[in-house]
Amino acid sequence: MSHTAHIRSHRKPRPRSASTLALRAGVAGGVLSTIAVAGSAGPANAEPVTETIEMPALTLESPALATAVALSAESTQQAALDAQLQTQENAAATKAAKAAKKAKDEAVRKAEAEKKAEEAARAEAQERASRSSERTTLSARSTSTPSGSVGTVISFLKAQLGDAYVMGATGPNAWDCSSLVQAAYRQVGVDLPRVSQDQSVAGTQVSLDNVQVGDILYWGGAGSAYHVGVYIGDGQYLDAANPSKGVVIQDLSGYPASGAVRVL
User: Fold this and answer.
1) Which one of 141, 168, 188, 264 has the minimum C-beta count within 10 Å?
2) How far apart are CA 52 and CA 41, in angstroms?
3) Distance between start and end Cα atoms, the chain
4) What is the pLDDT of residues 59-109, one digit of tens each?
5) Count of C-beta atoms within a 10 Å radius of residue 210
6) Could you tell me if 239 and 158 are in contact, meaning their C-beta atoms sit under 8 angstroms apart?
7) Around 75, how many Cα atoms within 13 Å sit in the side-chain half-sphere?
8) What does the alpha-carbon distance between residue 232 and residue 250 come to, in Å, rounded to a whole number?
9) In whole angstroms, what is the distance from residue 109 CA to residue 103 CA?
10) What is the tens place of the pLDDT at every residue in 158-212?
11) Total-model pTM
12) How far, in Å, CA of 257 to CA of 237, rounded?
C-alpha cells in the first residue's frame, strides 16, 4: 500500500443538530420574504421541509406609508408657515408700538409748545395791560403841558410812558435814556448828540435852583454824565430809567440830579 494512499478516518460521523432554523429574508422589489425551516434531525439523506410565507412589502408605493409621509410633510410645512406668520406678527406689533410711541411723544411735544406759546401770549397781554395802566396813572400825575416848543417836547415824552428800557434801543416802543431825550427834542428841530456825556454839555448850563420845564437833567459830571432825563415841573422829571422801570415819571427828591442844561 502506498504511503500516500488515503487512510479512512476511524471517526464516527457527527450527527446533525436536533433542529435547524434558517431565516432567509429576501427583498426582490419588496414583493416576497421567505422563511425556510429545516425538519428534525434524521438520516443524512432526509429531504428538508420547506414552507414559503408571503409577507406584505413596505415600499414608498404603499398607501399607508405614502399617507404617513404626506401627513408628516404637511405638518412640517404648516409648522414652518405658523412660525413665519408669528414672526411677521411680532415684527408688525413692534413696528406699531414704535409708531404709537413716536406719535405720543410728538403729541406731548406739540402740546408743551402750544402751552408755552399760550403762556407767552398771556404774559405779553398782561404786560401790555400793565403798561397801559401805568401810562394812564403817570399821565394823571404829571403836570399840565406847557405850550410852544417845550410843550411839544413834553407831550412826546409823556406819550412814551410805560415803554421798555433797552440799552441801545431808539424806539418806537423801547428806549435808553439818551435816545428818548434825543427823539423828544428832534420833534422841535433840535438835533442833540446821541449819548448822555455829550448831551450834558449840549446847551447852557443852569443851576438846579433855576431849572425850568424842558431843561435836560443829567447825573454825573458835565461831559461825563451817565444818565439824562427831562424836567417836567413840580419837582419831577421824565426818563427812561432802567430795565425794571422803563419810561417813567420820578421825583427829584428821590434821585437828585447833578446838573442841568437848557437848549430851548
Assistant:
1) 168
2) 21
3) 181
4) 556 777 777 777 888 888 888 888 888 998 888 888 888 888 888 898 888
5) 9
6) no
7) 6
8) 10
9) 10
10) 999 999 999 999 999 999 999 999 999 999 999 999 999 999 999 999 999 999 9
11) 0.48
12) 10
